[in-house]
Amino acid sequence: MPAVSKGDGMRGLAVFISDIRNCKSKEAEIKRINKELANIRSKFKGDKALDGYSKKKYVCKLLFIFLLGHDIDFGHMEAVNLLSSNKYTEKQIGYLFISVLVNSNSELIRLINNAIKNDLSSRNPTFMCLALHCIANVGSREMAEAFASEIPRILVAGDTMDSVKQSAALCLLRLYKTSPDLVLMGEWTSRVVHLLNDQHMGVVTAAISLITCLSQKNPDEFKTCVSLAVSRLSRIVSSASTDLQDYTYYFVPAPWLSCKLLRLLQCYPPPEDGAVKGRLVECLETILNKAQEPPKSKKVQHSNAKNAILFEAISLIIHYDSEPNLLVRACNQLGQFLQHRETNLRYLALESMCTLASSEFSHEAVKTHIETVINALKTERDVSVRQRAADLLYAMCDRSNAKQIVAEMLSYLETADYSIREEMVLKVAILAEKYAVDYSWYVDTILNLIRIAGDYVSEEVWYRVIQIVINRDDVQGYAAKTVFEALQAPACHENMVKVGGYILGEFGNLIAGDPRSSPLVQFNLLHSKFHLCSVPTRALLLSAYIKFINLFPETKATIQEVLRCDSQIRNSDVELQQRAVEYLKLSSIASTDVLATVLEEMPPFPERESSILAKLKKKKGPGAVSVPDLEDGKREGGELNGGGERGPDSAAMSASNASTPSPSADLLGMRSAAPMSAAPTSAGSLLVDVFSEAGPAAPSAAVNDDGFLSSAPPSEDPATLLSEADELLNKFVCKNNGVLFENQLLQIGIKSEYRQNLGRMYLFYGNKTSVQFASFTTTVSCPGELQSHILSILRATKPVEPVVEGGAQIQQVLNIECLTDFSEAPLLNIKFRYGGALQNLSLKLPVTINKFFQPTEMTSHDFFQRWKQLSQPQQEAQKIFKANHSMDTEVLKAKLLGLGTALLDDVDPNPENYVCAGVIQTKGQQVGCLLRLEPNGQAQMYRLTLRCSKDSVSLRLCELLAQQF
Amino acid sequence: MIKAILIFNNHGKPRLSKFYEHYNEDTEQQIIRETFHLVSKRDENVCNFLEGGMLIGGSDYRLIYRHYATLYFVFCVDSSESELGILDLIQVFVETLDKCFENVCELDLIFHVDKVHNILAEMVMGGMVLETNMNEIITQVDSQNKMEKSETFIFQSTRQDR
């Protein structure tokens, strides 16, 4: 007999649904629905009490209307009333309405909670299940507050029915997910773990989800589950297909539970106990063996169930990554699946192999499947499978097969689905760079990439190719030749024009010897693309033209002609017009020497992690990109790169070297690139001078000019500035960027970023005068024992330029690593000659321990628990001090956030107080810190208390912070 | 965790939607449309897994679906679930519906939305799998039906029932 006989439906409901289905148009449907809503509303509001049947019918109608996508804004109260009915039918429909329509913020929750409470204590298993379902579906915080202590009791009580236990387990899981702080497992832990031994497989099925989640959060407390899970798994795996009766699914014993057990084991490292491990290895071998046995049924369900277990077993083997024997078997098994006729299996095999490729034991074994994977990329009908194949190719790529893989990916790109093109482009670009043996291959690859999928080539990709060409002189000639050829194509992508313009502007001279690519030919070729390009590209081309004037004096007249024409010099776009005007002027006023200096070839870019990789990481989310051994050495620093990244365009084409006297520096590059405002302004005023005064003085502005010198301030006494700098240091405790130092000669700006125990600091030295600083040197030193505490600070990426021209700004990058906590600050010493006088400055660099904070969010309960744990007298540091600054709430909050900690709301019972929590990351250890700041507005005083797991940190932080408020 | 279970027909008409994470009504409808769009354009006999749409969380989530006659059954799950396992679960769900409704068809889902929800609730709770054993599920559904029968009185078909 069917469980639902068709005759007992509700006629009114059926009629309504039929009406809707017969509606010819959307309007008719809406009309019919509105009519029905009005009807139901009036019925609910009416005086006549509705019987259970009617209520149920109307609620069903509302559910149907809701499913069609219409808002339901009434009926909630009626549904809640149904909950307290003692008829199952009514109660059930009430719960259904609520679990579909009520969200966790509803103000009805309190009423619902009441009904649930009654049902939970009813001892009627059906009612209890309904109530538990409702909690699990709504799962609001109020519900957690009301029931978090009750549910574990139901779960482990001896007399609870199995079906109720199942529901209770999942209900608890839901509450744990919404409000982990309210679900305290403590005393229940061991009994919950032992549910893995429960006789009823359904209970185990539900409980394992709960245990897996709890194990992920508290692995130590739950680690006894490993041996229990192994023995349960072993019993299932070795059972005959009939042993488990109903839990045997198409001849496979308990496939779902097996998968879940294997997943649970993936939360832990391999078992330490030899016997347990032996048993587990045996299980895994049995599972692998079974895969080779002939199938017991031809049904797809049979093979699905069997393979579901197999794939989980393989995941576990990969997770352990310690049994070469099993890894090789796993790899062979996946290899078989790669050619399987079931698409699903091919998909999963490609996916699992991706993780396998990053294991050192199996990387080589995975590589043997390259032909199959390439074939999959070419022939699979399904885009999701092709995507997996592309991922796998990326993961298995190394120096030995890079050319083949990149070529295949490129040719696939021509037909690839639009949805995955951008990612493919990034991957090709990364592989090409990473495994490039000769850089001409790299250049070819990237240009091909632009040709094939120009629209999907992001800025990072073409910035990168330019960075690499600039930095490697062996490839510059080839690059110039290749872009020149690529630009011959009648239609070429704008990105190609950008790369072409940039490279010819820098290195066009390398191919100018050939009459087929003479300077004028090059210029005409570039200029033929000019009118089809967007404004930024045109701006870039204008810069290329001025570079041409320097490279090839014979093109000067032609180019000046172009610049002078109205479409340039009167262009409606400010940027283009400005460039045209300035370049024209520059080319006519400046002497060849000045031009040559201003338009000098770009200096090499500092080595840094590829920005493309950063982009791919961002796109895929952390961890999603498994690039084996990709720039391992650089990775730590690389993460920090994002903010400091500059594309070559913004890195100032003409301002080729920031230390050269480049009057147009701010106009081209610094606009977006210079994070400091000081230098550009002074450079800007200089520029005005150049053009307004014209005449003979102007070009010599860059050289030492007496007239300019006379207006310069008297030279600074070469005294050290330590005491003053201490104040400066305090200025930077709660912020990372700003002006570190300024006098009449020099301004030092600072911009820094920190992540974990690493930091990167950009120092910008701006010459405020119009005269060059000679013998400019900077040294950073770590006084005393600091050397062993922070840092490999001073891996300055490259020494600063020895000459800082008047009005120019140069940049220096410092990498910082915090080895252990410290209290001194490193020193920065700057020496230079200004007009013959030696200047000597010493400053403290604002590297303070709080920079390595990671904020930690925690609840009031956790906070005070940890606070109590840190109760040893030396762990606490306290200071009471007078307010030095405004006590305004927002200001204080901003400072506390700037400190790097998490500012915790609703933790301290006194809302006036501030509490913060964070972890200081050093290389060797992590130091947990809790902070409490109690302002007293009347007395204008503060009490600051710090508790840290390390004494010295408490003291240092207290010292630092007392200056801040 | 299962984030959502959606059933819609070949034209994208929703027949059941169950979300285990809260979205507002509009978003829910958009997710259904987006999912239909992703799934319906796929050929038969391609693989049953694909990355989730943007609304449901993108590539961190998988859509695992089966197409039966006029209906698509789609489960949206996170990475903690076994793809093939979920595929089996869909099969169990459909087989259970088939047993409960005797040759289930789209109309059964339309006219018995509440029953379908009840059956589903016996399998999945709060996004986690409660029970995979079909007989166990049917036993539960049966006992509920019995209770329901014993409570409801017989209606006359002449009754004014609107």
Automatic annotation (TrEMBL), chain A:
Pfam families noted in UniProt: Adaptin_N, Alpha_adaptin_C, Alpha_adaptinC2
Domain of life: Eukaryota
Mode of membrane association: Peripheral membrane protein
Entry keyword set: Cell membrane, Coated pit, Endocytosis, Membrane, Protein transport, Transport
Residue numbers binding a 1,2-diacyl-sn-glycero-3-phospho-(1D-myo-inositol-3,4,5-trisphosphate): 11-12, 43, 53, 57-61
Domain Clathrin adaptor alpha/beta/gamma-adaptin appendage Ig-like subdomain per the UniProt entry, residue ranges: 730-846
Coiled-coil features, chain-numbered ranges: none
InterPro entries linked: Adaptor_Complx_Large_Subunit, AP2_complex_asu, ARM-like, ARM-type_fold, Clathrin/coatomer_adapt-like_N, Clathrin_a-adaptin_app_sub_C, Clathrin_a/b/g-adaptin_app_Ig, Clathrin_app_Ig-like_sf
GO biological process, one term: intracellular protein transport
Location of region: Disordered: 622-667
Chief location bin: membrane
Single Gene Ontology MF annotation: clathrin adaptor activity
Cell location: Cell membrane; Membrane, Coated pit
Gene Ontology, cellular component aspect: AP-2 adaptor complex
Skewed-composition ranges (Low complexity): 649-667
Stated role: Component of the adaptor protein complex 2 (AP-2). Adaptor protein complexes function in protein transport via transport vesicles in different membrane traffic pathways. Adaptor protein complexes are vesicle coat components and appear to be involved in cargo selection and vesicle formation. AP-2 is involved in clathrin-dependent endocytosis in which cargo proteins are incorporated into vesicles surrounded by clathrin (clathrin-coated vesicles, CCVs) which are destined for fusion with the early endosome.
Subunit structure: Adaptor protein complex 2 (AP-2) is a heterotetramer composed of two large adaptins (alpha-type subunit AP2A1 or AP2A2 and beta-type subunit AP2B1), a medium adaptin (mu-type subunit AP2M1) and a small adaptin (sigma-type subunit AP2S1).
Protein family membership: Belongs to the adaptor complexes large subunit family.
Protein name listed in UniProt: AP-2 complex subunit alpha
Organism annotation: Gasterosteus aculeatus aculeatus
UniProtKB/TrEMBL annotation, chain B:
Domain of life: Eukaryota
Name listed for the protein in its UniProt record: AP complex subunit sigma
Keyword Magnesium: no
Segments crossing the lipid bilayer: none
Keywords: Cytoplasmic vesicle, Golgi apparatus, Membrane, Protein transport, Transport
GO biological process: Golgi to vacuole transport; intracellular protein transport
Entry's family note: Belongs to the adaptor complexes small subunit family.
SUPFAM superfamilies documented for this protein: SNARE-like
Positions of the AP complex mu/sigma subunit domain: 1-147
Subcellular location field: Cytoplasmic vesicle membrane; Golgi apparatus
Membrane topology qualifier: Peripheral membrane protein
One GO CC annotation: Golgi apparatus
Pfam families named among the record's database cross-references: Clat_adaptor_s (PF01217)
Reported function: Part of the AP-3 complex, an adaptor-related complex which is not clathrin-associated. The complex is associated with the Golgi region as well as more peripheral structures. It facilitates the budding of vesicles from the Golgi membrane and may be directly involved in trafficking to lysosomes. In concert with the BLOC-1 complex, AP-3 is required to target cargos into vesicles assembled at cell bodies for delivery into neurites and nerve terminals.
